[in-house]
């Protein structure tokens, strides 16, 4: 938008000659076009992966690959972060499939089978697949974890695949807890719910492994530090509550509990749905502020670049959930996907003839 609305006659505040402002516009156009080509190539690779993994054959699964890739491309811009963007989008798509499998797609036996396979991991071949759907879901997780884990291990100079496995095992265990609550009719306290829900919101497999690809070395000491856990808790709590406020109606129909319905239930009928939604705004704001404060804190165990990834995911949650459930909508954010990945820049006609980019390429090569 800055490029398309750039008016170099109004940018004299930069104290640069008119030609230099035109150069800035030309450089912006060149950089955007180059980045967009990379985005298109990466998304094509991801779409091929979905087909190769047979995830498109699961009738219950929402296909949200483009949304996750948009959030990766929009927050991790440098070209050298390709592996981080790919991991972010792959695991985002996978967590959505798994979430849908636990919510609507899988029977109790299928979910127990998938849980056992993930728990066994290296010895999973000793366990039979209960169904083709279980095989597709587990194989996609297993292959992706091993491939991405090997890449991350090479980048970090130590084996981090076990950490990737641990993250997925935690997610599946906590999802099974929610299934057991649903099956038995157990209604947790808001505190019990949130302790489990910060994991089942499923940002762990997306953000935590991506930390290994963005540059700094991440030691085992770092991932065991309380700061690391607090960054994850604040990010996930903020995202979970934003989601709950916007999705309570659908989840109530589906027989699922969330923060809104729990507040109403435990109030003994003294609190209405609108009041519960309003009540949750304060912890959302508090988590957001505390997260930003921790990200900006000096003298941290976690490198600043890594801390910023938690903040970027928090902003992504606002992008999808601040004014509704745009994530579940098949078309609400399509325009943003197209603008970043597919559509060329819409420059005014009177600016296009003056943008000769060839000399800028020559300067870059020099």
From TrEMBL:
Its cofactor is Mg(2+). Keywords: Lyase, Magnesium, Metal-binding. It holds the Pfam family Terpene_synth_C. One of its GO terms (biological process) is diterpenoid biosynthetic process. GO terms for molecular function: magnesium ion binding; terpene synthase activity. It comes from the Eukaryota. Residues 51-290 form the Terpene synthase metal-binding domain. InterPro entries: Isoprenoid_synthase_dom_sf, Terpene_synthase-like, Terpene_synthase_metal-bd. Transmembrane segments: none annotated. This is Terpene synthase metal-binding domain-containing protein.
């Amino acid at each position: 938008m800055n490029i398309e609305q750039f008016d170099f006659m109004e940018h004299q505040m930069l104290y640069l000659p008119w030609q230099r402002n035109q150069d800035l516009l030309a450089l912006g156009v060149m950089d955007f076009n180059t980045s967009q080509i990379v985005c298109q190539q990466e998304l094509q690779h991801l779409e091929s992966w979905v087909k190769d993994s047979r995830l498109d054959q699961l009738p219950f699964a929402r296909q949200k690959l483009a949304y996750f890739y948009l959030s990766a491309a929009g927050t991790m811009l440098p070209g050298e972060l390709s592996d981080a963007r790919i991991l972010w989008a792959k695991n985002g798509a996978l967590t959505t499939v798994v979430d849908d499998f636990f919510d609507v797609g899988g029977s109790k036996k299928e979910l127990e089978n998938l849980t056992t396979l993930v728990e066994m991991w290296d010895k999973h071949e000793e366990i039979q697949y209960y169904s083709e759907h279980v095989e597709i879901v587990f194989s996609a997780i297993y292959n992706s974890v091993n491939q991405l884990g090997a890449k991350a291990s090479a980048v970090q100079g130590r084996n981090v695949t076990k950490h990737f496995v641990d993250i997925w095992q935690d997610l599946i265990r906590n999802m099974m807890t929610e299934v057991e609550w649903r099956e038995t009719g157990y209604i947790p306290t808001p505190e019990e719910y949130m302790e489990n829900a910060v994991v089942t919101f499923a940002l762990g497999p997306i953000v935590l492994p991506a930390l290994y690809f963005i540059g700094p070395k991440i030691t085992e000491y770092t991932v065991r530090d309380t700061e690391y856990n607090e960054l994850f808790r604040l990010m996930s709590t903020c995202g979970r509550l934003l989601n709950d406020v916007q999705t309570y109606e659908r989840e109530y129909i589906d027989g699922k509990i969330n923060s809104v319905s729990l507040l109403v239930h435990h109030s003994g009928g003294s609190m209405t749905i609108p009041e519960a939604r309003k009540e949750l705004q304060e912890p959302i704001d508090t988590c957001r502020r505390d997260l930003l404060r921790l990200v900006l804190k000096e003298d941290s165990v976690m490198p600043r670049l890594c801390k910023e990834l938690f903040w970027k995911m928090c902003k992504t949650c606002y992008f999808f959930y601040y004014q509704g459930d745009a994530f579940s909508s098949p078309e609400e954010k399509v325009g943003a996907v197209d603008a970043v990945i597919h559509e060329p820049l819409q420059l005014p006609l009177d600016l296009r003839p003056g943008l000769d980019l060839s000399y800028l390429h020559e300067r870059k090569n020099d």
